[in-house]
Amino acid sequence: MNGKNQIVSIKGTRDGLTLHLDDECTFEAILGELKKKLAFNGLNEEQPLIRLTIHLGRRYLDHEQKETLKSLIREKQNLVVENIESEVISKQEALEWKENTDINPLVKTVRSGQVIDIRGDLLLIGDVNPGGKVSATGNIYVLGSLRGIAHAGVQGDQGAVIIASYMQPNQLRIADQMSRAPDYESEGVYMECGCIDETGKIRIEPLQEIIKKRPDLASFERRMLNG
């Protein structure tokens, strides 16, 4: 019987073990077969901890089922579940993903003392004046002058970017990284993009250079055309 027809198949990888579960049989059948596999896999408690990744395929497990699966595997003291991967997600997870990837257009001037907080990407058609603040869980696009504060990736997305037609901010923040305005008087720059570079610090570069490094930003144009 080949791996594709097995209810449970275990393969060794460079990073530990990978557990593939059949996505057509019942969950009870999975548990029964897994008990047999773990009983005869030759592992013992004296061996060091082995990391285990579980692939569910096109199967969805709720929180209780995942905990049941983890509990069964934990009976083997040298196995630790590092990750559970599935090709499907719940409706709630899908809605949260949509909220975090939606582009939210806003036409206004953000004045001193005003705060705009967006879930997803923010497309601001207008200026952010000194003392004003815009923040988003995703990217921030300002079709205007950015002279205030902008915070992208507020939930920890270090891949988020901040793009402005005219960049002269009081402060830029991406995830937990922060870049303050220079202490000396300086000119602003046109069509620049702030991002976290390979050293983990915020850097402002020409938009064209960022697009070369982040071709996924081209999806912004497609989403705008299709939206």
UniProtKB/TrEMBL annotation:
InterPro entries: CAP/MinC_C, MinC, MinC_C_sf, MinC_N_1, Septum_form_inhib_MinC_C. Residues 108-204 form the Septum formation inhibitor MinC C-terminal domain. Keywords: Cell cycle, Cell division, Septation. Residues 8-84 form the Septum site-determining protein MinC N-terminal domain. It comes from the Bacteria. HAMAP family: MinC (MF_00267). Belongs to the MinC family. Cell division inhibitor that blocks the formation of polar Z ring septums. Rapidly oscillates between the poles of the cell to destabilize FtsZ filaments that have formed before they mature into polar Z rings. Prevents FtsZ polymerization. Interacts with MinD and FtsZ. This is Probable septum site-determining protein MinC.
